[in-house]
Specification:
The protein has 248 residues and is mainly alpha-helical. The chain has helices at residues 10-19, 30-56, 62-82, 87-112, 116-136, 144-168, 182-211, 218-246.
Length: 248
């Protein structure tokens, strides 16, 4: 099984099955993963609300919360990815840190573009629901060619973002990537589409993990991987809506 999400890798599930002693404990289920995902999202929303209020109310630690949340979320994600057994506690930690970061960055966008956060949140939730429905009804099937295409596109986007970050240290910008022209909007729409299609790969991988009898803690791991994609999709929605607003 192929997925571009680094958390939901075939190697991770196979290691869990081989060394997780699934016979000695209950196994991963789809329902359990859904519940864990809801818990992580709820935790992130609460943390985001706190961070949002800090920035809106002019708190001096708002910027610290955003930077600390970004760094903490990155560290927590690495812990989960490289040691899946830590997911029951590291995944909620990731949700808290990511919530602090998202709350601050969302408030920043909101001060520049009134109403953009609600629009981005609704579009993200709508995309999640639509693709989940399309996947469960098999309108969209995660075939090998589909997985290969989405994985390749995601890898290409990641490389461009890394290159953009490195070049920014030298004062160089990649043309169109952060611009609000038609080409820049087209690029953002493509990235949003790729991020959304990663949800299909995540659904497929979680479903297969449950079918293969992964241990119970992998519910937290699967929920964490799905949340990684949702966070990416939400941020890209914000960027796209901001570019569209600049065109008005």
């Amino acid at each position: 099984m192929r997925t571009s999400n680094p958390a939901l890798s075939d190697k991770a599930f196979q290691m869990a099955i081989d060394y997780g002693s699934p016979a000695a404990a209950s196994s991963m289920t789809l329902q359990g993963t859904v519940i864990k995902t809801a818990i992580l999202l709820g935790t992130a929303v609460i943390a985001a609300a706190f961070s949002w209020n800090q920035l809106v109310n002019g708190g001096d630690n708002a910027k610290l919360l955003m930077i600390g949340g970004a760094i903490g979320g990155f560290v927590a994600s690495l812990i989960v990815i490289f040691k899946p057994t830590t997911a029951p506690w590291a995944a909620p930690l990731y949700a808290v840190c990511e919530g602090l970061f998202l709350g601050a960055i969302s408030a920043t966008y909101e001060t520049l573009y009134d109403g953009i956060v609600v629009q981005a949140a609704l579009l993200t939730a709508g995309t999640l629901g639509a693709l989940l429905l399309a996947y469960t009804t098999r309108i969209i099937k995660a075939t090998e060619n589909f997985k290969l295409g989405v994985t390749a596109a995601t890898g290409g986007i990641a490389l461009v973002y890394v290159l953009s970050m490195i070049l920014s240290f030298f004062g160089v910008k990649i043309p169109y990537l952060h611009e609000s022209g038609l080409v820049g909007i087209g690029i953002s729409m493509f990235i949003v589409a790729v991020a959304a299609l990663n949800l299909v790969l995540d659904f497929d991988f979680i479903e297969n993990g449950a079918a293969r009898g992964a241990p119970k803690y992998m519910e937290w791991y699967g929920a964490f991987g799905l949340m990684l994609t949702l966070v990416w999709l939400y941020i890209e929605m914000l960027r796209l809506l901001a570019k569209l607003s600049d065109r008005r």
